[in-house]
Amino acid sequence: MPETKNDYPVLLVENIGVSFGDFHALAGISLKVMPNTIHSLIGPNGAGKTTLFNAISGIRPPNTGTVIFDGAAITRIPAHRRVKHGMARSFQVTNLYPALSVKENIRLAVQARYLSESWVFWRSHRSRREIHDEVRTIMQDVSLEEKQHVNAADLSHGAQRSLEIGMALAGRPKMVCLDEPLAGMGIDDLRTTKELILNLKRKMAVLLIEHNMSVVLSISDRVTVMVQGKKIAEGEPEMIRRDSAVRTAYLGSQA
């Protein structure tokens, strides 16, 4: 049977090393993320997870190694150009326009793809039917259509996270990197955001950093475990759950 595009990783990271002076934050990390999967990075604080995210997304280029995304070498490409390649990212701290509504936040993110429209504030979005339709679809995808006229500042923490993910989706990514999207959430928001992340993989790959182990082990297709800048294990969630080294280093009683 001939290979299809889904047989190839959307992200291939090879021997990534990041140093800050004499401190080696990452030492030879390699991983691959397949299309339409959820790949989670776990590990204790200081393991290097966010540093790896920064190297992958272009915030902090690695000292050594390569990053290949959708078949293209992007190791030295800046973050804003990686968005055009189809990579999106959310951060630990939400990055929204608090005084604008849900609809306005997402509309600005969608318009950013249109060079002639990205900062045209005075023209009604109804004059661009495709933008209007896409904004509505994204609001539906992240379950925020009923709150479309609510200012971002007035949303719950979970709804703000959903809005940030919606803004990332406006770039039509092939992969989205989510950095602790469940942090600080209550039960209801957690359940909603978990379902949102699960639904994302129907359209794209998801690279996830998350400390909620019950969620990670229930939604991930593959898990990479990091400790002190190194990868100590990788595999399907059940294998990770049973790995004695992982339990000793990180999971403990949570497994």
What does this structure look like?
With 255 residues, the protein is an alpha/beta fold. Helix content is 34%, strand content 23%. The strands form 2 sheets. Strands 6-7-8-3-9-10 form a 6-stranded mixed sheet, sandwiched between helices. A 4-stranded antiparallel sheet has the order 2-1-4-5, with helices on one face. The chain folds into 2 domains: 1-86 and 175-255, Rossmann fold (3-Layer(aba) Sandwich); 94-172, no CATH class. β1 and β2 (23-33) form a beta hairpin. The protein has 9 helices and 10 strands.
User: From the helix content, strand content and strand pairing, which structural class follows?
Assistant: alpha/beta
How many helical elements? 9
Q: Tell me the number of structural domains.
A: 2
Instruction: Provide the gyration radius in Å.
Output: 19 Å
Total strand count, please? 10
Oligomer: single chain
The major sheet is characterized as: 6 strands, mixed
Tell me the CATH architecture of the largest domain: 3-Layer(aba) Sandwich
The average pLDDT is 87
The CATH topology assignment of the largest domain is Rossmann fold
Please provide the ordered H/E string of secondary-structure elements.
Answer: EEEHEEHEHHHEHEHEEHH
Shape: globular
